[in-house]
Specification:
By secondary structure, this protein is of the alpha+beta class. The chain has helices at residues 22-46, 49-54, 60-87, 89-102, 107-126, 131-145, 151-171, 174-201, 218-221, 232-253, 265-282, 350-367, 387-396, 444-447, 454-463, 487-495, 500-507, 520-525, 566-580, 605-618, 632-641, 666-686; strands at residues 285-289, 296-301, 309-315, 335-337, 340-342, 373-379, 405-408, 420-425, 427-436, 442-443, 531-536, 547-548, 551-560, 586-595, 598-599, 623-627, 645-648, 663-665.
Length: 688
């Protein structure tokens, strides 16, 4: 799904060493610097330079003292706040609001904000004589420490400017007012120039953010509580070996592991052997879990005594490639189109799940150990029902799979440059209808009008599934258990950037459709659906054949939301279809597969670690979203293992999964490996 502000994924993410508005920064920096130079020249012309530096009794000693007192006051504010957050239920609620302001800031930026507040307080208590100097020092300290146009920075910048104008000109001489303006504009100009330069330098999209952008989100609030492992050693290795990782991914993608087609069974088996070998090469102890269907491939490294355990899940099977004539290249010959890797399975899910394995391998190769215990479980039937893994997880009941959290990368970021963590997935009830008419195909001239046409009957049944005006599904009881959206969910969803015109243009449609009373984002994320996936029967060849077919069929999927039950919905569907079927035909409904919807945790230490890792990688605080797709095993993990399940999507909304020309951006592949490494280090810190 294309979002507003869409850019080439290879462009640098905002805050990640560069910014897509680099040209704007350059012009703004020129404006600021010219304004600063003009102000300095005017002061020099007035002969006010010496007084500006040391007037009104300000000495180097008083300057140092006020800076020190301001810093101490600011530190006290931070630590008092942290104590409130730790021990007060109200504080825990407020922490989210504070995090919204602070995420995206470097640690020294938080100290800059504290210094701003502390110096202002110190000057206030010292009296009006030094007030304008307090504003000047605050503006200087703040300007020196800030780096980007986040919401918090805009707020503080506006505050500094308003205080400077309000008090600098009223309380003392006008030279101090000019000094405040000069300091503020000069520093902003220099910072904007630096941002513009960084934007140009990191245009490849593959550059790693500097260490200064590493500690984000809750780490800002826990400064001094523990030492954060520096992931830079592993990131450097990832950068050096990235070409090798991509070549391995290409090998992986060349295996046509289509699990839904029995003809490809040997290839699915071969793919399981390939990925098992790569797990072993990475340093994991592996085993195959055989049973009915294709094997599960399991690997583990359990050498971090006393540390948390992370279970990574993915799947090595892929969707069919039909319609094959719409592919621009062989679906199983990975092809680079610009910065995109085009192949079946590139994003769903070989490319995304392979990021986990390469991050683990890079850590073991660089350090000889991991900061946490890891387990990887890859299945070969996700695209064909996932019965084998469902059976194993429930039978195992958390013994071999005992873990502290589960990580799944089989979804998409909300938009390019905007990471997201999915906390809800729709479930699925997938059925097939077969409508039987006469015992053989009939001549439409001889029998048409007297014998019910199964395809006509099928069309009538399908037409009665939805109300054509409201878009609501007509199956009795379908909405009975649909859980209402929480107010905060609807609020956050409404605040997500979304351009419906751009959305329509990308899809080549002139209007959106769906359930009345809900926005487009709500329809595709948190409301249930009923869609025809295919209709078949009758003559399909070239030219005309006047036949009245003996039978017709359709495949129909229903996406479900909490608390709908797939078996109950399939039963209600069957009962309704039998009721509305026209006379003269027999209807048979078969349930193909299903899975319950999932609603996952949205907070906690593992969620914090994931959000920090994503923010450090993309330079933007992740947003929380609910995804319209289904990953049935996610609900099983959550239920059976009773641990947080984190959905860290590294794909992009336009990756065309399940469609011809599926792709995975090279920059996203590299960023996914880096993000996984950062996540492991952050989880490792939880044990300390």
């Amino acid at each position: 799904m294309k979002r507003p502000g869409k850019r080439d994924p290879s462009d640098p993410a905002p805050g990640n060493g560069g910014h897509p508005q680099g040209a704007l920064f350059r012009w703004a920096s020129i404006f600021y610097l010219v304004l600063s130079a003009t102000g300095i020249a005017w002061l020099a012309h007035q002969g006010q330079g010496p007084e500006l530096l040391w007037g009104h009794g300000l000495t180097p000693w008083t300057l140092a003292r006020e800076l020190a007192i301001g810093l101490a006051l600011g530190a006290a504010v931070l630590f008092v706040w942290r104590a409130i957050v730790l021990w007060s239920p109200l504080g825990k609620e407020l922490e989210g609001e504070l995090s919204d302001l602070l995420v995206g800031l470097q640690p020294q930026q938080v100290w800059g904000l504290a210094l701003f507040s502390g110096v202002a307080e110190e000057i206030f208590f010292r009296g009006a004589l030094q007030l304008s100097w307090g504003v000047l020092l605050s503006a200087l300290a703040f300007g020196l420490l800030h780096t980007g146009p986040t919401r918090a920075l805009r707020l503080w910048t506006l505050t500094a400017t308003l205080i400077g104008f309000a008090f600098g000109g009223v309380v003392v001489w006008r030279g101090s007012l000019v000094a405040v303006v000069i300091a503020h504009t000069l520093i902003n100009g220099l910072q904007l120039a630096r941002l513009a330069s960084s934007s140009a330098d990191s245009a490849t999209g593959n550059s790693s953010p500097s260490r200064s952008t590493e500690l984000l989100h809750s780490d800002l609030l826990t400064a001094g509580e523990h030492h954060m492992t520096d992931t830079q050693d592993v990131l450097d290795r990832i950068d050096r070996e990235l070409d090798q990782y991509q070549n391995e991914l290409f090998e992986y993608l060349r295996i046509p592991s289509i699990s839904t087609d029995p003809e490809y069974a040997p290839e699915v088996e071969r793919c399981s052997r390939f990925i098992e070998g790569k797990m072993s090469e990475a340093g994991l102890t592996t085993r195959r879990i055989e049973g009915e269907g294709f094997p599960l491939v399991y690997g583990e490294w359990m050498g971090a005594e006393g540390a948390p355990t992370v279970l990574f899940y993915g799947h090595y099977d892929v969707q069919p490639v039909d319609p094959v004539d719409e592919w621009r290249h062989d679906p199983f010959e990975p092809t680079l189109e610009g910065d995109d890797i085009v192949a079946r399975g590139a994003t769903d899910d070989k490319g995304q799940s392979y990021t986990h394995l390469k991050a683990i391998g890079a850590m073991l190769a660089e350090r000889g150990s991991l900061p946490v215990n890891v387990k990887i479980l890859l299945e070969g039937e996700e695209e064909s029902g996932g019965e084998a893994i469902e059976h194993f997880v429930r039978t195992d009941a958390g013994r071999e799979l005992a873990t502290d959290c589960v990580v799944v990368s089989d979804s998409s970021m909300y938009a390019p440059g905007q990471p997201s963590i999915v906390y809800g997935l729709r479930g699925m009830a997938y059925v097939e209808i077969r409508v039987q008419g006469p015992n053989r195909d009939l001549h439409s001239g001889s029998y048409g009008g007297a014998v019910a046409n199964p395809l006509n009957a099928m069309s009538e049944i399908i037409a009665r599934l939805k109300d054509p005006v409201t878009g609501r599904i007509q199956i009795p009881g379908f909405y009975d258990k649909v859980r209402d959206l929480e107010p905060w969910e609807r609020k956050e969803m409404a605040e997500l950037p979304f351009d419906e015109a751009e959305y329509r243009a990308e899809l080549g449609i002139d209007a959106v459709a769906g359930e009345e009373g809900y926005s487009t984002l709500e329809r595709v994320g948190i409301r249930p659906t009923c869609d025809v996936n295919g209709i078949f029967g009758g003559y399909q060849g070239r030219g005309a054949k006047t036949v009245l077919p003996a039978w017709g069929g359709a495949k129909i999927s229903m996406r479900l939301v909490p608390d709908q039950d797939p078996e109950e919905i399939a039963a209600r569907f069957t009962e309704y279809v039998q009721k509305v079927a026209p006379r003269g035909v027999k209807v048979e409904v078969t349930t193909v597969h299903g899975g319950p919807p999932s609603l996952l945790v949205t907070d906690g230490p593992y969620m914090d670690a994931a959000m920090e890792a994503m923010a450090a990688t993309w330079g933007q605080r992740p947003v929380r979203v609910r995804e319209g797709g289904s990953i049935p095993i996610v609900g099983t993990f959550s239920e059976v293992l009773d641990v947080p399940v984190l959905l860290l999507g590294y794909g992009l909304p336009d990756d065309r999964l399940h469609s011809p020309n599926e792709k995975f951006n090279q920059g996203q592949f590299a960023a996914g490996i880096r993000c996984t490494a950062r996540f492991l280090d952050r989880v490792g810190n939880l044990s300390s």
